[in-house]
C-alpha cells in the first residue's frame, strides 16, 4: 500500500470513529441546524403581509380543484372539454390541408415525376413516401395544433401537480410512488419523456413500476388515432347533435382506462415481481400562474407540435415506401401485404381486429403517429379500391373524416373494430424510441422485454373479452 | 428600490444588455462554467433560456428538468458555458436527479453557481442555498419570481440577505426578463474575481458535530490540500456517503482542482 493509499484509509477510519462520537442522529442534527439557520436568516429579511389576505385565490382554487369530491369530476370535465375543442376544431383545417397536399399536389407531382422516372420509382416516391407524409400532416397537424397549446396552457397554469395530488392516494394504495402521477402526466405528452421523468423517483423498485406502466398514458402519437376513430365510429353511432360530445367522452374513457390499467398493473407488480411498500414523499403544489398566451402558443408549436409532426414525417416517409412495396411486390399474383393480411385475418378476428390493423402496428413500431395512415393505405391496397386511387397502395381524395370512414367501412370495419382499435392503441407495445429509452434508463434487457410485451398481452386479453362479449350480446 | 433607481441601473453602461450575446448551443472555448441550481419549479430553465437564447421546455411543475442541459452566452467578451441542473430540495438525498445536481456542483467545479430561489418561499429555498454554499465559494443568488412575491405583498430585503449570505443577491422575475441584466453582470463579477464571496457557513448547536467536522477536515486536507469544500466532504463522510468514500479511494476528489469538468454523464 502506498503512502497515499494509507492516508486515504486513515481518513476513512477517522470518519468511522468520529461517526460513533457524533451519534447516529447526525442526519437529524444536521437537518435541524440547516432549518434553524435558514429560518433565522429568513426572519431577518422577509416581511410577510397580513397572513389572512395572502394566497387567498390560490387557496380557494386548490380547495376546489383538489377537493375530495370535486377533484376527479373536474379533472374528467377538463379533459373532456380539451378533447371536444380538439375534435370539433380539427376537422375543418384537416379538409383544407388534405385538399392541398393530396388533391392538388399529388397529381401534379405524379405527372411531373412520371415524365422522367420509371413507374416503380415514381410509385415508390410519390404514391408511397409522399402520400404517407401528406396523410400524416393532414391527419395529425390540426388536432395537434389545437390539443398541445391547450394542454400547455393547463401545464403553465399549474394544473398538472394538482392532478398528481388527486392521484397520489390511489398510487400509494397500489404500492407505487406518488410521484408516478407526475411521470404519468408527462407520458400524456410522450412516453419516452415520461420514462426519463421517472428519475424523480428515488426508490428503484417504484421507479421500475413507473417505467413499466408509463406506456398506459396515451401519448402524442396516439391521441390523433383515438380522436379520429372515436369521431368515425363512436360519434357516428350517436345522434348528430351529440356526436362531438360522444366522441370526446369516448376518448376520455380510454384515457381514464389507461390510468386504471396503470393502477392495476402497478398493484400487480408491487404484489409480485416488485414487492414492497410505498415510500413517503412530499409533493409541492406550485402557485397558479397566469399563462402567457403568446409565449405558450409559440413554445407548444415549436416544442411539441412541430417536433411530433417532424418525427411523424420522418417515420412516415420510409414507412410509406414499405407500404407501397409490400402492396406492389406480388408473389403468385397476390401482393405481400395481402398474403400477410389474409394469413393474419382469422387470428385477428378472434380479437375483433383485422389483418390490416396487425400489419399496421408492425409497420408502425417506430412511431405510433403513422398507424392511421398505414391502416388506410393498407386497406385501400388490400381491397384494390382503384376508384380511390391510381394503383394499389395509393390513396386519393381522402379529404374529410367522412371519406376516411367510407374506406374503413368498405374494409369491413364495424363499431366493434373501432372500439377494439382504440383499446389496442392504448394497450400495445411502446414505440421503438420509448423501448430504447427504457433500456437506457433500466440497463436491463429483462425489464425492457417486460415493458414491451406486458401491454401487448393485456391488449390482446382485453380485446378478446370485449369481442367475445360483444358477439354474445349482439 | 424605486423606479428611478431602476432606470439608472438600466442606463448604466455596465448593465447594458448589448453586451450579451446568446450563443445557444455553441459552447466552444468557453472561459467560465456557470451552473444553475435551485429548488424545483423556481424558474431555472426560464433563466437558462433567457441567457442562452435556447428553448428548453419550461412548465409550471416541479421535476420538469431531470437531466443536465447546457448552453452558452458571451458577455464582456468572455464566453460562459451555462449548465441547467435539475431542481432539488436538498443535496443530501439519493435520487438520480438530485445526484446529477449535487455531483455537478461538487465535482464539475463550476466557476459560478447561480442559485435560483423562489422569493415567495424563501425560507424553504434557503435550506438548499445554505447547503450549496457549503460546497462552493462562488455563488450568486437569483431571487426569482419577485413579481409573484410583490403580488402577494411579500417583501424581501435583498441587501440584508446579500450581507447575511455573503454572496451577491439579484432580484429578478425571469419570465419578464426583470433582473437578468444585473444577474449577468454579477455572474461576470464573481467569475472574474471582482466580487469576492464570503459564503455563509452552517452553524450547528451540536459541539460534537462541529468538533468532528473540524477533526476530519484536517485529516482530509493532509491528503487533498487546497480542496475548496472540505467541510462538506467531511460532513458527507461522517454520514457514510458511499460516493464520497469512493471518490476518496479513487483519488477523484484530488482531481477536482486539475480537471475543469469531470464527466458526470447522465446516461
Write up what this structure looks like.
The complex is a heterodimer of chains A (474) and B (267). Chain A is mainly alpha-helical. Chain A has one domain (71-274, 295-473). Chain A has 19 helices and three strands. In chain A, a hairpin with a 2-residue loop joins strand 2 and strand 3 (334-335). Chain A starts with a helix and ends with a helix. Mean pLDDT of chain A is 83; it is low at 386-397. With 267 residues, chain B is an alpha/beta fold. Chain B has helices spanning 3-11, 44-52, 96-107, 122-135, 146-151, 158-165, 180-191, 207-223, 230-238, 242-250, and strands spanning 21-24, 32-38, 69-75, 78-84, 112-118, 139-144, 155-156, 169-171. Chain B has a seven-stranded mixed beta sheet, sandwiched between helices. In chain B, a hairpin with a 2-residue loop joins strand 3 (69-75) and strand 4 (78-84). The radius of gyration of chain B is 18 Å and the shape is globular. The N and C termini of chain B lie far apart (45 Å). Mean pLDDT of chain B is 79; it is low at 256-267. At the A-B interface, helix 1, helix 2, strand 1, helix 5 and helix 6 of A face helix 3, helix 4, strand 7, helix 6 and helix 8 of B.
Amino acid at each position: 500500500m502506498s503512502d497515499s493509499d494509507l492516508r486515504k484509509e486513515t481518513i476513512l477510519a477517522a470518519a468511522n470513529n468520529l461517526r460513533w462520537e457524533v451519534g447516529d442522529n447526525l442526519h437529524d442534527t444536521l437537518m435541524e441546524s440547516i432549518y434553524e439557520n435558514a429560518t433565522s436568516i429568513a426572519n431577518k429579511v422577509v416581511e410577510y403581509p397580513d397572513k389572512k389576505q395572502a394566497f387567498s385565490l390560490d387557496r380557494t382554487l386548490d380547495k376546489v380543484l383538489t377537493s375530495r369530491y370535486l377533484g376527479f369530476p373536474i379533472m374528467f370535465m377538463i379533459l373532456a372539454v380539451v378533447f371536444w375543442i380538439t375534435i370539433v376544431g380539427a376537422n375543418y383545417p384537416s379538409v383544407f390541408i388534405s385538399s392541398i397536399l393530396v388533391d392538388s399536389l399529388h397529381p401534379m407531382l405524379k405527372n411531373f415525376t412520371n415524365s422522367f422516372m420509371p413507374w416503380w420509382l415514381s410509385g415508390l416516391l410519390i404514391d408511397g413516401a409522399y402520400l404517407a407524409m401528406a396523410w400524416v400532416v393532414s391527419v395529425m397537424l390540426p388536432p395537434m395544433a389545437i390539443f398541445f397549446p391547450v394542454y400547455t396552457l393547463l401545464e403553465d397554469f399549474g394544473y398538472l401537480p394538482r392532478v398528481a395530488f388527486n392521484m397520489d392516494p390511489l398510487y400509494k394504495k397500489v404500492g407505487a410512488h406518488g410521484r408516478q402521477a407526475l411521470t404519468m402526466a408527462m407520458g400524456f405528452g410522450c412516453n419516452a419523456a415520461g420514462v426519463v421523468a421517472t428519475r424523480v423517483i428515488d426508490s428503484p423498485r417504484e421507479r421500475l413500476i413507473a417505467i413499466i406502466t408509463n406506456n398506459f398514458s396515451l401519448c402524442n402519437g396516439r391521441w390523433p388515432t383515438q380522436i379520429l376513430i372515436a369521431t368515425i365510429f363512436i360519434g357516428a353511432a350517436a345522434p348528430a347533435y351529440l356526436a362531438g360530445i360522444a366522441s370526446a367522452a369516448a376518448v376520455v374513457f380510454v384515457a381514464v382506462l389507461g390510468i386504471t390499467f396503470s393502477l392495476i398493473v402497478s398493484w400487480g407488480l408491487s404484489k409480485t415481481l416488485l414487492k414492497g411498500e410505498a415510500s413517503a414523499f412530499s409533493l409541492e403544489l406550485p402557485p397558479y400562474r397566469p399563462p402567457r398566451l403568446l409565449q405558450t402558443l409559440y413554445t407548444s408549436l415549436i416544442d411539441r407540435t412541430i417536433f411530433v409532426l417532424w418525427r411523424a414525417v420522418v417515420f412516415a416517409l420510409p414507412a410509406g415506401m414499405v407500404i407501397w412495396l409490400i402492396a406492389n411486390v406480388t408473389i403468385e399474383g397476390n401482393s405481400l401485404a395481402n398474403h400477410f393480411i389474409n394469413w393474419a385475418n382469422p387470428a385477428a378476428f378472434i380479437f375483433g381486429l383485422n389483418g390490416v390493423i396487425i400489419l399496421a402496428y408492425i409497420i408502425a413500431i417506430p412511431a405510433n403517429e403513422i398507424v392511421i395512415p398505414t391502416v388506410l393505405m393498407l386497406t385501400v391496397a388490400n381491397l384494390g379500391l382503384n376508384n380511390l386511387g391510381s394503383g394499389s397502395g395509393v390513396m386519393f381524395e381522402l379529404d374529410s373524416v367522412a371519406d376516411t370512414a367510407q374506406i374503413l367501412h368498405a374494409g369491413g370495419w364495424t363499431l366493434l373494430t373501432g372500439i377494439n382499435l382504440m383499446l389496442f392503441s392504448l394497450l400495445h407495445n411502446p414505440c421503438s424510441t420509448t423501448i430504447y429509452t427504457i433500456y437506457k434508463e433500466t440497463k436491463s434487457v429483462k425489464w425492457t422485454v417486460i415493458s414491451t410485451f406486458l401491454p401487448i398481452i393485456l391488449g390482446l386479453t382485453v380485446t378478446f373479452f370485449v369481442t367475445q362479449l360483444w358477439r354474445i350480446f349482439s | 428600490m424605486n423606479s428611478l433607481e431602476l432606470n439608472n441601473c438600466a442606463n448604466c453602461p455596465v448593465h447594458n444588455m448589448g453586451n450579451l450575446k446568446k450563443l445557444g448551443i455553441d459552447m466552444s472555448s468557453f472561459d467560465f462554467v456557470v451552473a444553475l441550481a435551485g429548488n424545483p419549479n423556481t424558474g431555472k430553465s426560464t433563466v437558462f433560456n433567457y441567457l442562452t437564447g435556447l428553448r428548453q421546455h419550461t412548465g409550471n411543475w416541479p421535476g420538469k428538468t431531470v437531466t443536465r442541459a447546457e448552453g452558452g452566452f458571451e458577455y464582456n467578451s468572455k464566453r460562459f458555458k451555462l449548465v441547467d441542473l435539475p431542481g432539488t430540495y436538498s443535496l443530501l438525498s439519493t435520487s438520480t436527479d438530485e445526484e446529477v445536481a449535487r455531483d455537478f456542483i461538487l465535482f464539475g467545479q463550476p466557476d459560478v453557481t447561480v442559485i435560483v430561489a423562489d422569493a415567495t418561499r424563501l425560507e424553504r429555498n434557503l435550506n438548499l442555498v445554505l447547503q450549496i454554499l457549503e460546497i462552493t465559494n462562488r455563488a450568486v443568488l437569483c431571487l426569482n419570481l419577485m413579481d409573484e412575491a410583490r403580488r402577494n405583498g411579500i417583501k424581501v430585503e435583498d441587501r440584508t440577505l446579500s450581507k447575511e449570505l455573503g454572496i451577491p443577491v439579484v432580484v429578478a422575475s425571469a419570465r419578464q426578463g426583470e433582473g437578468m441584466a444585473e444577474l449577468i453582470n454579477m455572474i461576470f463579477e464573481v467569475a472574474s474575481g471582482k466580487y469576492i464571496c464570503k459564503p455563509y457557513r452552517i452553524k450547528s448547536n451540536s459541539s460534537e458535530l462541529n468538533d468532528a467536522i473540524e477533526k476530519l477536515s484536517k485529516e482530509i486536507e493532509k491528503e487533498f490540500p487546497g480542496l475548496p469544500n472540505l467541510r462538506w466532504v467531511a460532513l458527507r463522510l461522517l454520514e457514510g456517503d458511499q460516493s464520497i468514500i469512493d471518490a476518496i479511494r479513487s483519488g477523484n476528489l484530488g482531481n477536482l482542482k486539475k480537471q475543469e469538468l469531470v464527466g458526470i454523464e447522465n446516461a
